[in-house]
Design brief:
heterodimer; A: alpha+beta; Thrombin, subunit H; 6-stranded antiparallel β-barrel; 6-stranded antiparallel barrel; 13 strands; B: mainly alpha; globular
């Protein structure tokens, strides 16, 4: 006891410092809202993290039991799984467009392969010739235009995505009948934007206006493509330069509809009668 | 003895007055804030008992805290500063040779010693003060910058006031 007292009195400065410093810190912690919040938060953080560690440990101990129950559940679910059967049914829907006396049918399809980050992107879908798909059909998603069928075999087809340097779709600005061609652009790598070219610059356009298909294309007139986000006039040019945000999110595309224009062949046949040089 | 008490009391009150009513309004973009009241702790006599030194430091800090609305922060910084003061003096000065009335002033101890004494203690005080005020290690560089700039301006003010009240009686 005496030795302890001697030790304390020999280093009294240090002990006094500890006492006064701790008193000050208690003042700091109890009277300053900001510092108190920091102290409380960090202590809560520490306590929470230690609980989490203990919880992790407990979880680990009960792992084999959880595993058994999960395996049983998996087996149960696997018995009910639909995708293990080949889906051969086709759901077709007919759209009667009485105004233009034109008939479209749609074939639903699931995307089985998709790219968005290349210069020329293609989408593979799980419908082919057997399901009534032929070359040149338009493909739309639930939000808007997706692309054009380019290659078909019996059960699968490959769609040339809108995100392709050579895709060109006739499009117009909703509200005005001005039409131009929609391209993704040869040096655009953003899967969310595209460009509308050949709109004469006397047409008044506003940001946020919708761009839709024009009806000269494979798609039903008025199918949504996107919204205008930027427009400007190129110097020395009679046409507007319009950038739009595509309404289809290509990176999360899962289901698409292939559009069968029943009168396309008839129209094409008629149009090929115009001589090339005329 | 009474003379020491009275002169320290007057010094404390005038430094507190300057600190609270003048220097509280002075600052360079919140980057350099002078805290000259620590001159009071710097100039307490050599032979002051440790308990009394800590008590006075704590009270001085607490008094400034009351006016600055930062309870405990200046008091903590002053307690740390008093501790560093004891260590600094025990390393650089032999206590036995002095009578009770000796004070660590520039006129007595010489410019070089006093300069180091002021720089070390001011830096320790400001470091503790600003770290407690910021209370986080985020933006540590900004806090250290504040410590350095504030220390510079405080040391500058301390040296100026020492030059003003310079008494070369003991050289």
């Amino acid at each position: 006891m005496r030795n302890l007292w001697m030790f304390v009195s020999k280093y009294n400065a240090f002990f006094l410092f500890i006492i006064f410093f701790v008193i000050s810190l208690i003042f700091v912690g109890s009277n300053n809202p900001y510092q108190r919040t920091v102290i409380l938060n960090s202590s809560n953080d520490f306590i929470g993290r230690s609980y989490e560690q203990i919880d992790n440990l407990k979880d680990y101990l009960s792992l084999s039991r959880v595993n058994d129950s999960l395996v049983a559940e998996n087996a149960n679910l696997r018995n009910q799984l639909k995708s293990s059967f080949a889906d051969d049914s086709i759901r077709q829907k007919a759209v009667n467009d009485t105004l233009y006396k034109q008939q479209y049918t749609t074939i639903e399809a699931r995307v089985v392969r998709n790219t968005v980050n290349r210069k020329n992107n293609y989408i593979t879908i799980n419908r082919g010739r057997a399901h009534g798909i032929s070359l040149g059909m338009g493909v739309i998603g639930s939000a808007g235009v997706v692309g054009i069928v380019r290659y078909v075999n019996n059960n699968y087809s490959i769609v040339q995505s809108l995100l392709h340097s050579r895709t060109k779709i006739s499009a117009s600005i909703e509200g005005s009948n001005a039409f131009g061609s929609l391209v993704w652009g040869p040096d655009n790598f953003n899967s969310q934007t595209a460009f509308l070219l050949d709109i004469p610059n006397h047409i008044v356009v506003k940001n946020g206006q919708r761009i839709v298909t024009s009806g000269f294309s494979l798609f039903p007139a008025g199918t949504s493509i996107g919204k205008i986000i930027r427009r400007d006039v190129k110097g020395g040019n009679n046409f507007l330069d319009i950038e739009l945000k595509l309404s289809t999110d290509f990176s999360t595309l899962q289901y698409v509809y292939v559009i069968n224009n029943l009168r396309a062949a008839e129209q094409q046949e008629l149009e090929t009668q115009i001589p090339e040089d005329e | 003895m009474n003379r020491i008490i009275i002169s320290n009391l007057i010094r404390f009150l005038s430094l507190l007055f300057i600190q609270v009513f003048l220097l509280q309004n002075i600052g360079y973009y919140n980057l350099a804030t002078p805290f000259i009241y620590i001159l009071f702790i710097l100039l307490l006599p050599f032979k002051i008992p440790n308990t009394l030194l800590f008590l006075l430091s704590f009270l001085a800090g607490a008094a400034v805290d009351v006016f600055y609305d930062t309870p405990g922060i200046n008091a903590a910084a002053c307690s740390l500063m008093a501790f560093v003061r004891i260590i600094f003096i025990s390393i650089t000065v032999q206590r036995d040779g002095f009578d009770n009335e000796r004070e660590p002033k520039m006129g007595i101890m010489g410019f070089r010693w006093f300069f180091f004494y002021a720089v070390v203690l001011t830096f320790v005080h400001h470091l503790c003060l600003f770290m407690l005020e910021t209370f986080s290690f985020i933006e540590i560089y900004y806090t250290l910058l504040r410590v350095v700039f504030s220390s510079l301006i405080t040391v500058f003010l301390i040296l100026i006031s020492e030059f003003i009240f310079f008494k070369n009686k003991e050289r």
